[in-house]
Design goal:
By secondary structure, the chain is of the alpha/beta class. The chain is built from 14 helices and ten strands. The two termini are 21 Å apart.
Length: 376
């Protein structure tokens, strides 16, 4: 299956899906000591098999495992690298009207790829469900390298931990880049040809309220944008030509709330013009994301997947409004290089957004139907 599938069809998904009740209960049972880890994995396997069947039924040609083996969209990946440990800070992440569970990642040695990385194990199972089907391909989503860097410097305790093992930022960035590069190649060797970096770092940079605090700490928006670009691109050197790597930019997606606001203009010269990915999955479901004008900076020939349908709320968008917005975006990126999706996944963490499974699939059907209306 070629990686042109999503572009040819002009509809796509971001990747996470609401966790079924059986899976949520199994996680609680594991915490309570009622089942073993192997038994949890069996529940996960069944849930993923069912999800992939539903993805196919609803017309999706690029499928994921729904991130059903993760608690978080990002931290589980970080914990899977050597040299990083799971920590419990005083606070979680602060969203618009809610605070998340308190978990983080911290350096405890030199960072390196672990051949038993959970994302690699998860992908290998997903691939068994798609390899014999010529109508679909699979995708593995992982948090961007810049997201790991941002997590590791979050808070004074994390920064002190880094200093024990790294004398300078350059060495830290090099190890992050190499660990990710090795993970990408391991996924490729396992059959993966489509990998997406999920990245909230850019969504935070554009938020002026966020910057009012960071500037006081001595940070420069431009310097941090340059740094995030460097960290991400460090993982993207010398990859196989038939490996499609894309990135998804989000401003927070937790329990139907959000963390940041701001248009793409401050980062367009960095992200759109210089990050070495083939496609951009961009949040555009409300005014927090600004207008389409910054898309003019997207490198010619690259894909832009417009997240015009929200995954946060069950109400269905008006199809004609979505069509009109796609046409507006086509002033900056040729229509043939555009596609449509939800603005994010439905469950970036296991809590999930505030809608039902049926409403989730209604959103997917809306994306598919509107896309077919525009491009067919």
């Amino acid at each position: 299956m070629t990686n042109a599938t999503a572009t040819k069809l002009h509809y796509d998904i971001v990747g996470s899906f609401l966790r079924p009740a059986e899976l949520k209960q199994a996680r609680e049972d594991l915490k309570a000591g009622k089942i073993t880890l192997d038994q949890l994995h069996q529940v996960e396997d069944r849930a993923i098999e069912d999800l992939v069947a539903k993805e196919k039924k609803h017309g999706l040609k690029v499928v994921t495992d729904g991130e059903f083996r993760r608690s978080y969209w990002h931290l589980d990946t970080f914990w899977g690298f050597d040299g990083i440990k799971h920590t419990k800070p005083e606070h979680g992440y602060f969203f618009h009207d809610e605070e998340t569970r308190a978990d983080s990642a911290q350096v405890e040695g030199r960072i390196a790829f672990n051949p038993q990385h959970p994302d690699l194990v998860a992908y290998k199972f997903l691939h068994t469900l798609t390899i014999a089907d010529p109508e679909v391909s699979d995708r593995q989503s992982i948090p961007a390298p810049a997201q790991l860097y941002a997590e590791l410097i979050r808070g004074e305790e994390n920064r002190q931990a880094i200093a024990k093992y790294y004398a300078n930022d350059a060495d830290l960035i090099a190890d992050i880049g190499q660990a990710y590069h090795d993970l990408l190649l391991a996924l490729y060797d396992a059959g993966c040809r489509d990998i997406k970096f999920d990245d909230c770092t850019w969504g935070m940079i554009v938020d002026n309220d966020y910057w009012s605090k960071r500037i006081q700490e001595g940070f420069s928006r431009e310097k941090l944008a340059e740094l995030y670009l460097k960290v991400n691109n460090a993982a993207l050197n010398d990859l196989p030509e038939d490996l499609r790597v894309s990135t998804h930019v989000c401003r927070g997606n937790y329990h139907s709330t959000w963390a940041a606001s701001g248009g793409y203009a401050p980062i367009a010269d960095y992200l759109f013009a210089r990050e070495n990915v083939q496609a951009f999955y961009l949040e555009y479901d409300d005014s927090r994301s600004g207008d389409f004008a910054p898309l003019a900076k997207v490198t010619a020939g690259k894909e832009v997947v417009l997240g015009l349908v929200t995954s946060k709320h069950p109400e269905l968008e008006d199809p004609q409004t979505v069509i009109n917005r796609v046409k507006e975006a086509s002033k900056y990126v040729p229509l043939e290089n555009l596609a449509l999706s939800t603005q994010c996944g439905f469950a970036s963490t296991e809590e999930g957004n505030k809608l039902t499974e049926q409403q989730q699939w209604d959103k997917i059907e809306l994306v598919v139907n509107v896309s077919n209306n525009i491009w067919n």
